[in-house]
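Q: Fold this one first, please.
A: Sequence and structure below.
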Amino acid sequence: MRKKILFICGSLNQTSMMHKISSYFFDSECYFTPYYADGIIDYMVKKGFLDFTIMAGKFRELSINYLKSFGLEIDYKGEKHYYDLVFTCQDLIVPKNIRNKKLVLVQEGMTEPEGFMYHLVKKLNFPRWFACTSTTGLSDAYNLFFVASEGYKDLFNAKGVNPFKIKVTGIPNFDNALQYLDNDFPFKDYVLAATSDRRETFNFEDRKKFIRKVLKIANGRQVIFKLHPNENWNRATKEINKYAPKAQIYTMANTNHLIANCDVLVTKYSSVVFIALALNKEIYSDFNLDYLKTIMPIQNNGSSAREIARISKHLLLESKTGNTIRLNKHPRQVLKYVFD
């Protein structure tokens, strides 16, 4: 009988990552679901209170549209089948129906800085989602955790993630920046401003100040704004038209292609900065650039998805042979079994 694998998606980036990994499981049945939760969080999703998250709103709509466009099998919340293996791009929430499954966590991109809420989660055992992606990996509910680089491995180790569960493979969508140079976007040599959805996620951002910063950096050069998929596009467009009326605005264009053709990238906290780094662009970010270089995803010509699938297939082999892999108890023996 063919093994069944569930891929838990989220943003368009997370969804396409899961799709790429799934393409290497030729002998298994692959199913996909938007990100989901249980209990009170699920209730809030149904009531529309969490439309700004990857569980609902634009994120879920874009994810479902992507899955349908490729003819992929959707099993919302993974309720239709028994799954032999589950992949997810985030462990801030681990639904009850996958807690007893073999679970693989794949780093989705950049993690947020360890701020005040991160320390509350660590010290007072607050829910991990209080601190957003800064608490990625802290659930310890997974068998394997695939990360972008040795620098990120060190970062997760410092946070207390089990080092024997971490495998540095690179991550899909960030492991082959050179491919984005081949594109048909019509403009070049401009200043690109990639906006954030901080206001939609109840964080403060002075957008007027950001726009003026972009214009100062541009110093007369062409400016293009790429709006975050989760932000209020109408509001953002009005603000840009008011303070930078000559700038061009894009909502659905391929961000990686825009980065490939720009001279300068201006952003705040965004994973897109990694593509700009790999392409040696001039960058202005709220992150320290020297630090970003230490954690930058490895570039391996797009082989991360294949390597993640190759290693994860050992978890399916485990169920076929009846052997049980317990990563917490015998890490060295397990690593020899999984990685040899």
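Q: Good. Now the second chain.
A: Here it is, same layout.
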Amino acid sequence: MKEIPAEIRVFYDALLVQKKIPEKPRFYYKKWLRYYLDFCFKYGCNQSNRESLAYFIKKLKEKNQTEQQQKQGLHAISTYFDIEFADKDKNIPLENKKRILSSKKRELKSTNADWRPNRRLVLLLRGSRF
């Protein structure tokens, strides 16, 4: 069974306290994280990819884990992802963050996700030609 790397364990413990997870379940949360890391290593999944979580939960079902255990495992690994993605956001330089946000904004406009009325559409609905 793989151990939780020390740098992850420190952040994970702090996050469990921050999320007010009672002390007794913290032991199980760390157990689920160890199982997940071992699962990813064994099956070649990317431990930082949220899609791996679905495969992990499927494996828990196959191993006859109760629904409560599956939910706890799901929450434990989702908490782990909070560390993974928060850490990645901190490492992105400010200029890159601005560029990423700008491109997302363009994507929204190109898919008509802008909720402001479209002048051509309003005129068309009114029966006018543009």
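Q: Anything worth noting on the second one?
A: DSSP finds six helices and no strands in the chain.
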